[in-house]
């Protein structure tokens, strides 16, 4: 299956979920004060909205909602968890784009937040999005029992923190000075990119009250498509251009960063992507036809063009 044979149902579902997430994020980031808040500074809120409401496929929220749907979970609760995850993902992009990190001027075809506002605004917007994500999940408005919300908060903190995404970014910066070996690259990518995608898939199982085996299976599915996402990203950095990507291309090579594409080449990478998609489909096999849209998601990730 290639990108041209993806079912229309998948494309529609991805767009529908993106619209749902966009709508709830707009509400969460409006000017209304929540209990315990003193004020919502206008410029800060504008910067947060700029960092979040700027398009994107909303793939991670899609995965939260579709894995939760496997178990007939509370859709509104899943949507709020999806919005929390997207807030953390977007905070990471805002901070990654800063001059001290990846120093990017474009994100999704638009000026990065620190270019549209300034560096201080970008730092504070990122800090606020990160913090607010846990507020969203912990709130009573997320209609799950307290133990489930606590498990989600802990799992997301582990995925986003020093042992996950933030730690992966630290390793990525270190890689500019000293290129890691293949094992190091895989570890870096599993943390920086894979951890949040793994959480997206596992969180749906947590929300849906899945068995331990089901939860572990979906977490492994998340790991497989997380690696596929990064491999596809590295491949695009080599083969695409800024007009298609909506951000600068060729930056990894220019920075001398070690990637699996640089290590093994384009042909090897495409073979690996095919293998990861097959692995993802196998992990979903016990769920039968209910998981068809998630299988489509694995193909979409491996064959994406931006």
Structure, explained:
The protein has helices at residues 8-28, 42-52, 59-69, 75-96, 113-116, 119-138, 146-160, 165-175, 182-207, 212-239, 242-245, 251-255, 260-264, 266-284, 292-303; strands at 106-107, 110-111. With 306 residues, it is mostly helical. It has a single domain, classed as Farnesyl Diphosphate Synthase. It has a two-stranded antiparallel ribbon. The mean pLDDT is 93. It holds the Pfam family polyprenyl_synt. GO terms for molecular function: metal ion binding; prenyltransferase activity. It comes from Paenochrobactrum gallinarii. This is Probable farnesyl diphosphate synthase. Belongs to the FPP/GGPP synthase family.
Features:
306 residues; mainly alpha; Farnesyl Diphosphate Synthase; two-stranded antiparallel sheet; 2 strands; prenyltransferase activity; Probable farnesyl diphosphate synthase
CATH C-level label: Mainly Alpha
What is the overall pLDDT average?
93
CATH topology: Farnesyl Diphosphate Synthase
Q: What would CATH call the architecture?
A: Orthogonal Bundle
Give the topology string: H per helix, E per strand: HHHHEEHHHHHHHHHHH
The CATH homologous superfamily name equals: Farnesyl Diphosphate Synthase
Report the span from N to C terminus.
18 Å
**In angstroms, what is the radius of gyration?**
19 Å
Family: Belongs to the FPP/GGPP synthase family.
Protein name: Probable farnesyl diphosphate synthase
Organism: Paenochrobactrum gallinarii
Keywords: Isoprene biosynthesis, Magnesium, Metal-binding, Transferase
């Amino acid at each position: 299956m290639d990108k041209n044979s993806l079912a229309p149902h998948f494309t529609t579902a991805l767009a529908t979920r993106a619209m749902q997430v966009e709508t709830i994020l707009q509400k969460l980031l409006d000017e209304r004060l929540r209990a315990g808040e003193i004020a919502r500074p206008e410029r800060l809120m504008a910067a947060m909205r700029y960092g979040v409401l700027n398009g994107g496929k909303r793939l991670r929220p899609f995965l939260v909602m579709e894995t939760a749907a496997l178990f007939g979970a509370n859709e509104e609760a899943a949507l709020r968890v999806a919005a929390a995850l997207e807030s953390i993902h977007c905070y990471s992009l805002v901070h990654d784009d800063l001059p001290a990190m990846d120093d990017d001027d474009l994100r999704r075809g638009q000026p990065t937040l620190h270019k549209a506002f300034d560096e201080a605004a970008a730092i504070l917007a990122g800090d606020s999005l990160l913090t607010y994500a846990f507020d969203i999940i912990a709130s009573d408005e997320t209609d799950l029992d307290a133990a489930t919300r606590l498990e989600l908060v802990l799992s997301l903190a582990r995925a986003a923190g020093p042992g996950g995404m933030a730690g992966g970014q630290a390793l990525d910066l270190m890689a500019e000075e000293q290129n890691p070996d293949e094992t190091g690259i895989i570890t870096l990518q599993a943390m920086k990119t894979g951890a949040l995608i793994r959480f997206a898939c596992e969180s749906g199982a947590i929300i849906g009250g899945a068995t331990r085996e089901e939860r572990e299976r979906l977490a492994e599915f998340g790991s497989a498509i997380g690696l596929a996402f990064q491999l596809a990203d590295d491949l695009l950095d080599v083969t695409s251009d800024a007009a298609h990507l909506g951000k600068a291309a060729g930056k990894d090579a220019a920075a001398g960063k070690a990637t699996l594409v640089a290590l093994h080449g384009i042909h090897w990478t495409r073979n690996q992507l095919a293998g990861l998609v097959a692995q993802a489909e196998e992990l979903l096999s016990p769920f039968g036809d209910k998981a068809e849209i998630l299988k489509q998601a694995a193909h979409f990730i491996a064959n994406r063009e931006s």
